[in-house]
Amino acid sequence: PSPVQPAYPLRTERLNLRPVTMGDLDAIHAYRSNPTVALYLPHEPHSREDTVAMLAKMTEQSALDEPGQWLDLAVELDGVVVGEVVLKWDADDQERGEIGFAFHPSVKGTGVATEAATAVLRLAFEQFGWHRVIGICSILNLRSSALMERIGMRREAVFRDAEWFKGRWITVSHYAMLQYEWRARYGDAVPR
């Protein structure tokens, strides 16, 4: 069965998370076009046309209806979109998923990424009932590695020269968290 979708927006202490819309174009383009942000994303810095095309695809789905789909949630701070957190429903195992994220550099060091990623893990484990959530990043992407470790994911493996990415082989780190690890770490400690 499809995961039970929550009522949006998801609220944390400072943030609202909701499906992205075409109205988010300017805010999302501001960081998707930034070379520093795009360095570890699967695309080069976006042109405005690239961001329009990406948003058109992302807005086609605002819920997870079948395995293999991505749910892309805009992260709002004080009414301004400052990033995205995504969940992918595993195509081969309906009790697994994958987390991903991208944020505007202006929120670096503010805890916004940690707060948003924790809220999405709560969604995955408590609302969707998933057993396992993974995260994958380049071994050079120290900020993503640190974020996954802060939210309680553990590095399970490092795969050397495992992916062809932007014209070269890269080494990737695989992180994961299990539902029982989520419960042991957070229980009811994270604001809903």
Rg is: 16 Å
Q: Percent range for helical residues?
A: 25-40%
Low-confidence stretches: none
Q: What is the general shape?
A: globular
Class from secondary-structure proportions:
alpha+beta
Largest sheet: 8 strands, mixed
Mean pLDDT metric? 94
Proportion of residues in β-strands: 25-35%
| Strand arrangement across the biggest beta sheet | 1-2-3-4-5-6-8-7
Secondary structure tally, helices = 6
Q: Give the topology string: H per helix, E per strand.
A: EEHHHEEEHEHEEH
Number of strands: 8
How far apart are the termini?
24 Å
Task: Report on the architecture of this protein.
The chain is of the alpha+beta class. 29% of the residues lie in helices and 33% in strands. The chain contains 6 helices and 8 strands, in the order ββαααβββαβαββα. Strands 1-2-3-4-5-6-8-7 form an 8-stranded mixed β-sheet, sandwiched between helices. α1 (25-32) crosses α3 (48-58). The radius of gyration is 16 Å and the shape is globular. The two termini are 24 Å apart.
